[in-house]
Amino acid sequence: MTEEKVEKNQEKFNHITEAEISYDSGKGLTEETVRNISEEKDEPDWMLKKRLKAFHHFKKRPMPDWGPDLSDLDFSDITHYKTAEGEQADEWDEVPEEIEETFDKLGIPDAEREALSGVGAQYESEVVYQNMKEEWEEKGVIFCDMDEAVQEHEELVKEYFMKKCVPPQDNKFAALHGAVWSGGSFVYVPEGVEVEIPVQAYFRMNSKGMGQFEHTLIIAEENSTIHYIEGCSAPQYTRNNLHAGCVEVFVKENAHVQYSTVQNWSKNTYNLNTKRAKVESEGVMEWVSGSMGSKVTMLYPSSHLNGEGARANHITIGYAGDGQNIDTGAKVVHNAPNTKSTIESKSITQGDGRTNYRGLVRVPEGSHGSKVSIECDALMFSDEATSDTEPYIEVKEDDVEMAHEATVGRIGDEEIHYMQSRGIDEEEAKEMIVRGFIEPIAKELPLEYAVELNRLIQLEMEGSLG
């Protein structure tokens, strides 16, 4: 990639918008902040009570001390809710010009035209654009932002929201999320409907010291199919930003959900997400995650296989450069017989970056015939880089197939010299090795997103190999 192209690609992520702001909660978090957010959204009383209960749990719960260092994260310095002027639109030319320009630079309208069934675009705390092609709406598919879902599909939200999958008591950041969540996506796929083209949501933080807490709730009824793609980015600041989203997925009998993420938060962002799926009999859940940016990431997508024959595939790639700590992994609980899970984790580390695979697989007594395969590969480019693997496997059933493999390695001089002898320069040789390393993940994404994943890694590594 030429220097000019690198600068253009960096600019599209670091672009800062000067949009008019209609509401700003200010820095810090109090009970009044929570009440004000709920009032701004004109929420029903049950949601306010749910928020306040989560807030009090957040205040009581200590910071986790088992993972990356979070001591520099100051909640009193974070703005938890901020909205731009204007109403949500379903036409791009109705979005405020300066915000539309940001999403244009990120290529979202082009992607919608070329490869998607629907798009949601969130700016700061609220969704500014939401649209889905009519053919899917006519089949009963719902794709809207969570705030609209609370108003228009209240009974469904009341039944599923932070109740059966990720309760606010799950962890400190789930509790924070439950108190101040805003925006995100609600997806409902009726029985027997196969949404053949992916839908996408893109989350953009623009302001210094901003926190973003979007909620994604997906319900795939029996024999349905959906592929949901999530993208996210923020410009670089010297002050910390915080992202604490939450994803809940319900995969009913024989349904199939793929959830793909290409994350490129700026390197002043703490990315502390909770993602979980409940999978019924013969259902399939696929998590495909690329974690490229952020200062610290703690992300462990989880699948609970609750019906016989349920399956989960977890494919993750983490990249950490100077100053980054990417702590990712997977959790799978085999709660029924003849369930199957595969976990494939890959990490690339350079400079003084740190990556870690942290996984949990649990097979309780009675889940006979279950199969588990775990593979972790790490690629390091420097002596200062660190990469660890911390798998925890608990099996209480005899009739189980279990396979676990982990490799850690550096790019060897012999590989580079071999490729140089074929006329390939050193930098291109290393990029080719990395592209081959991430290929199992890239091939699971639609072509446009696989290209974007490759481009992001190329961007991160440009000029820093050696």
Automatic annotation (TrEMBL):
Any single biological process term in GO: iron-sulfur cluster assembly
Entry-linked InterPro entries: Fe-S_cluster_assembly_SufBD, SUF_FeS_clus_asmbl_SufB, SUF_FeS_clus_asmbl_SufBD_core, SUF_FeS_clus_asmbl_SufBD_sf, SUF_FeS_clus_asmbl_SufD, SufBD_N
Domain SUF system FeS cluster assembly SufBD core stretches: 203-437
Ranges where the SUF system FeS cluster assembly SufBD N-terminal domain occurs: 43-200
Domain of life: Archaea
UniProt xrefs under PANTHER family: FES CLUSTER ASSEMBLY PROTEIN SUF (PTHR30508), UPF0051 PROTEIN ABCI8, CHLOROPLASTIC-RELATED (PTHR30508:SF1)
Family to which the UniProt record says this protein belongs: Belongs to the iron-sulfur cluster assembly SufBD family.
Name of this protein: Fe-S cluster assembly protein SufB
Name of the gene encoding the protein in the UniProt record: sufB
